[in-house]
């Protein structure tokens, strides 16, 4: 006998989970959300490391289903920091009265589909069991941290922190010898924030990044009124652009002269946003010559700022194209390496061998003495949040085993063999790779909400993607991905940061608008590619 019986169970209380809970509750279902955290926020609850902030403009990183909700919150900056973002999500939870149906401090450990009842039995770490018809995963694309990477971590006599598990009370870094492992978007935010606080900062760099300077003006009443006046515009445009941002690819490389191309790049670069990546020239993802020219434009900007040839070799990418890895925004990040208390160490050809009590030991025997190690080492993206739960579908099949063999899904919304399990922010849908996450998560949760409504309104109890439907989507996804330069590089975009993970471009690269159209077309055709029973 289960401790609780539900119509629907939502895992996660972040951007997707909060909206999914609201929609299903409005539909009249008995629904409850569960989260390991002690409060709402998802990624913005956990990622409270120094310098954590948006790199989507705040006014588009919002829910667009309710104008009053949108206009009831005012941002203080174009790219606000984590404390303000967490406050916003708490505002949403309170405005929609969601807390009464959220169970915090509760980790879902196991979910098993019962073929005799067509229902899921879900078990928490504390032993509570929940019987539910629908299981909706809103666990986040980047929520399974890669935090056990090096032998000897337990032997370190100092403190080790993964950025995604930063203590709420903060960490005292003043005057200490601090090492940062990783220079992706998170590592860059940490490094540029703590450099003038710590005693000595050593940055261990394996893969340098193309970094764009952020322009982050404060917002007063006039700026807030202006962006709020654009609500209807955002409602119409964001779901249909290529990346779910307000800007889009509108100019083709071949239509411009070399002088016009350079002028466009210079103008967009000065915007201080992700526009150079997501709205300059779409050909950076498909044409190697265009990719190289735009990459060299960014390299030249970085070289001018760094000056030092050795630092340029260490910090400026040369073996992959701009935009084929996640592009970070930064504030005086490169200038950090010109400080006397900062040392950059390449671990590409001389990797970290282990953590020792005194600090960090490289393969060649070099020992770096440290008091604090900060691991900005990323995530098992897309799959990790679900494979860390023991999920069993038809015939006892294991999602962890299935995805260890081959990462597949149907539109990123369901997985064949796992009936009534509906998913957000998983592989083969647009995600953090090429999407403003609120745009994509709203669309995915709305599709899930309507799919469940359709099942129940038609007297059915089960929805599941067909094997043929899933194969068709995977083939479509791979055809687009294989033509994209992202597939030719090594990064978390293809899972290469996780040992043994099958290689596949994790995010759908056909565009947010095209993806939305495809999912709505499937629904309009009676959920083509899915079987209802």
**Count of individual beta strands:** 20
How much beta, percentage-wise? 15-25%
Structural class: alpha/beta
Shape: globular
Question: Rg, please?
Answer: 23 Å
End-to-end CA span:
25 Å
Helical fraction: 25-40%
Count of discrete alpha- or pi-helical segments spanning 4 or more residues: 17
State the low-pLDDT regions, or none: none
Whole-number average pLDDT?
98
How does the major sheet shape up? 8 strands, mixed
Description:
With 533 residues, the chain is an alpha/beta fold. 31% of the residues lie in helices and 17% in strands. The protein has helices spanning 15-26, 43-46, 67-71, 82-95, 185-194, 221-228, 231-237, 258-269, 275-278, 288-306, 309-315, 333-336, 384-387, 399-405, 437-457, 467-482, 512-524; strands at 4-11, 31-34, 102-103, 108-114, 119-124, 129-137, 159-162, 177-181, 200-205, 212-213, 329-330, 342-346, 352-356, 359-362, 367-369, 372-375, 390-392, 421-423, 463-465, 530-532. The strands form 5 sheets. Strands 1, 2, 3, 4, 5, 6, 17 and 18 form an 8-stranded mixed sheet that branches. Strand 4 and strand 5 (119-124) form a beta hairpin. Helix 1 runs parallel beside helix 15 and helix 15 (437-457) runs parallel beside helix 17 (512-524). The longest helix has 21 residues, at 437-457. The model has no long low-confidence stretch (mean pLDDT 98).
């Amino acid at each position: 006998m289960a401790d609780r019986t539900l119509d629907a169970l939502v895992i996660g209380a972040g951007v997707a989970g909060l909206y999914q809970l609201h929609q299903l509750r409005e539909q009249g279902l008995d629904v409850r959300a569960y989260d390991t955290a002690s409060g709402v926020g998802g990624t913005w609850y956990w990622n409270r490391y120094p310098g954590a902030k948006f790199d989507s403009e705040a006014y588009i990183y919002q829910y667009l289903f309710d104008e009053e909700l949108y206009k009831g919150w005012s941002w203080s900056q174009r790219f606000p920091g984590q404390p303000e973002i967490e406050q916003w999500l708490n505002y949403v939870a309170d405005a929609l009265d969601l807390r009464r149906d959220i169970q915090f401090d509760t980790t879902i450990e196991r979910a098993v589909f019962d073929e005799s009842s067509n229902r899921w039995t879900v078990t928490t770490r504390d032993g509570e069991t929940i019987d539910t018809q629908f299981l909706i995963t809103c666990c986040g694309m980047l929520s399974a941290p890669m935090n056990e990477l090096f032998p000897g971590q337990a032997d370190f006599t100092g403190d080790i922190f993964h950025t995604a598990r930063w203590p709420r009370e903060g960490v005292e870094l003043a005057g200490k010898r601090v090492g940062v492992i990783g220079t992706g978007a998170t590592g860059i935010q940490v490094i540029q924030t703590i450099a003038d606080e710590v005693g000595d900062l050593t940055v261990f760099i394996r893969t340098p990044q193309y970094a764009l300077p952020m322009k982050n003006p404060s917002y007063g009443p006039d700026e807030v009124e202006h962006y709020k006046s654009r609500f209807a515009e955002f409602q119409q445009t964001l779901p249909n652009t290529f990346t779910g941002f307000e800007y889009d690819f509108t100019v083709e490389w071949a239509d411009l002269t070399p002088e016009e191309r350079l002028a466009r790049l210079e103008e967009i670069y000065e915007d201080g946003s992700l526009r150079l990546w997501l709205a300059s020239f779409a050909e950076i993802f498909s044409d190697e010559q265009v990719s190289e020219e735009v990459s060299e434009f960014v390299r030249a900007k970085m070289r001018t700022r760094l000056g030092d040839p050795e630092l340029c070799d260490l910090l400026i990418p040369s073996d992959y194209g701009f935009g084929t890895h996640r592009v970070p925004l930064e504030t005086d990040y490169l200038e950090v390496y010109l400080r006397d208390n900062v040392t950059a160490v390449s671990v590409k050809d001389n990797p970290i061998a282990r953590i020792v009590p005194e600090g960090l030991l490289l393969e060649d025997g070099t020992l770096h003495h440290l008091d604090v190690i900060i691991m900005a080492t990323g995530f098992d993206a897309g799959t990790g949040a679900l494979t860390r739960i023991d999920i069993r579908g038809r015939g006892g099949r294991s999602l962890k085993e299935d995805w260890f063999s081959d990462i597949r899904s149907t539109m990123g919304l369901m997985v064949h063999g796992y009936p009534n399990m509906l998913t957000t922010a998983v592989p083969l849908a647009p995600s953090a790779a090429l999407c403003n996450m609120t745009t994509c998560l709203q669309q995915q949760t709305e599709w899930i909400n309507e799919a469940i409504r359709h099942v129940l309104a038609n007297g059915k109890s089960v929805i599941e993607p067909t094997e043929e439907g899933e194969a068709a989507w995977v083939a479509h996804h791979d055809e687009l991905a294989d033509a994209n330069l992202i597939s030719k590089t090594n990064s978390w975009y293809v899972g290469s940061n996780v040992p043994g993970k099958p290689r596949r471009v994790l995010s759908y690269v056909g565009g947010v608008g095209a993806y939305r159209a495809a999912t709505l077309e499937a629904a309009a055709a009676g959920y083509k590619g899915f079987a209802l029973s």
